[in-house]
């Protein structure tokens, strides 16, 4: 509580920074969306909200402030007018000294990049894990409307955090246990910024902006550079993840790849630079017959490559969100057990990929001592999902298009949510 109090008081002191809003600008609706988490998947789940906002306000200016690693992708969205890239780091600070340092960095980036942004409405869609960064930046802009979820919107947060909520002008309640894209759109609906939409639309649609990014990339040149034969159908296997406990063993992935090969499906092993060694190990373990694309593509190029895949397999990570949102049949592995808290950090109910053809596999039950969600440092509970579970899910998917499907490891029980 003292940390929150300190962060708000410091933000209020920094509010003396010159504001660029003029009377003429106030007459024009200008939106700023702030999402300062560094994860690719979180940003993709924000895209339906941005598309809905643009559809409702076709003439308004829409800007985004995001972590620098995410900025290149959002800058390719034709419906976004400006993207500000901030380098704030991955881990929220928890001591007063670290809080002070982080807030001063936010103020520095605001002063260097954003003093001319002058939004009339600032939207902070994140909740729970973004305790103060986005709200402080929104507060510094001086926007007359600063909209975000109340701090107690999650069942895990038993008491409100008034010093964080004080930075907002409008606190939105509700949305517990809701898929993240739907939750973000709920925020805009409750604020009166977009009309009511069909339930589930944000979770199951193909994201037009992402498809636009894929289509504008020179696919023939990219395919030749990375060694993909454009004339043959291929599946993408992405073995990487941001945390070791989310990485399914490469021995298991090798079995899935062998099954795909037996069905005459080519395979592309795809990772970014941080997971390149893991991809190389899988490539060698599987006999070297697949096409290895490890650290060779930018995020935008990965979007184009994945868009041409017939199937996608991966852990809970950014590439899976790309595949699902492009309408590619997508199979993702999660580490939270069945009946876990739907608002939990790894709950597939909250963070599974957007898209009409998504299957996610999860443990039927976590392994001791983990409860509800894997708490180990290395791969642990995810090992209860067997290669046969994933292979079986691909067969079921071929006969059940149009569903987001849950497969639980070992039990084989299936839950279908109509898309």
TrEMBL record:
SUPFAM superfamilies: UDP-Glycosyltransferase/glycogen phosphorylase. GO terms for cellular component: cytosol. Keywords: Glycosyltransferase, Transferase. GO terms for molecular function: ADP-heptose-lipopolysaccharide heptosyltransferase activity. It comes from the Bacteria. Its EC number is 2.4.-.-. Pfam families: Glyco_transf_9. Transmembrane segments: none annotated. GO terms for biological process: lipopolysaccharide core region biosynthetic process. This is Glycosyltransferase family 9 protein. It comes from Edaphobacter paludis. The lineage of its organism: Bacteria, Pseudomonadati, Acidobacteriota, Terriglobia, Terriglobales.
